[in-house]
Amino acid sequence: MAASLPPQKYTRGHTVGLVLAPFSGGQPRGGVEHGPNQLLENGLAKQLRALGWTVEGDGPDAMPDFESLRPAKELVHGILKNPLFVSRVTQKIHELVKKTCAEGKVALTLGGDHSIGMGTVSGSAAVHDNLGVIWVDAHADINTADTTESGNLHGCPMSFVMGIGPKVEAFSWLKPCLRPSRIVYIGLRDVDQGEKRILRENGIKAFSMHEVDKYGIGRVMELAIAHLGADCPIHLSFDVDALDPSVAPATGTPVRGGLSFREGHYICESIFETGRLVSMDIMEVNPQLGADHASLVQTIQVGCSLVRSALGETLL
Length: 316
Ligand SMILES: NC(=[NH2+])NCCC[C@H](N)C(=O)O
Ligand SMILES: [Mn+2]
Ligand SMILES: [Mn+2]
Prior knowledge:
8 strands, binds arginine
């Protein structure tokens, strides 16, 4: 028997619309495009149905083929890698997330690398006024075309949705849609110099691992939710590298000193408790990385359990 879920303020009924994002063009390591398939094969949709959700978008032909969007000729903008390809894919994701949210469903995007956040945040913000974004990550992913040292667009989605930094021609579809005050970071511990300046200059609220250690995750979540305000819709973007590599090893840019298993889940549980989660990303699960098969299985399982916690699974 399905559990009965409490009402959610900003969505109609209890339907999750899956948005599958098998994409790795925002960074150089292959494998992360298999994240969505692995999460589904581990039973994610079934697990959400068992919690009482209606789940759409996991049918046999649901997996999109983004290769067809790869341009014959890339645009050049400094050291940015694949700007036109990333733009086309994220625009597609934007449309899918926007449609799902407009239908009153929770949009759950399975990545894929974190450049996809350009599409998910902008797609959700196009429907939900005053959206607050909780970005859980070891990294701030707020480089601009000027500050990025890697040229990897998975390190840039936040500056792109905010509309800061130089205009990049390939992304003319992406209009500024997120003010700095609508962002809260949790879990940061590997932030580039240019990104630190952007965070400071824009007064962006960030709870790095230092604050998680200092206050504990319970207090951090109280402060995070209070910062966004008591009554706004919330988008949760969860990069699994926010977790300590001992918890989620199969990811492209692991950084030691991360969130524990319980801290990660507590974040998700406390966002569910607000009743205001309207969209969520689970990103950077890379089944081809990690030392062995066990670390892969562990990472996929933790990805699934984070989503369950954000969608109402409780310990008791
Ligand atoms: N989504 C991620 N894992 N991002 C890692 C970004 C690392 C680095 N800051 C960069 O710009 O390349
Ligand atoms: Mn990230
Ligand atoms: Mn990261």
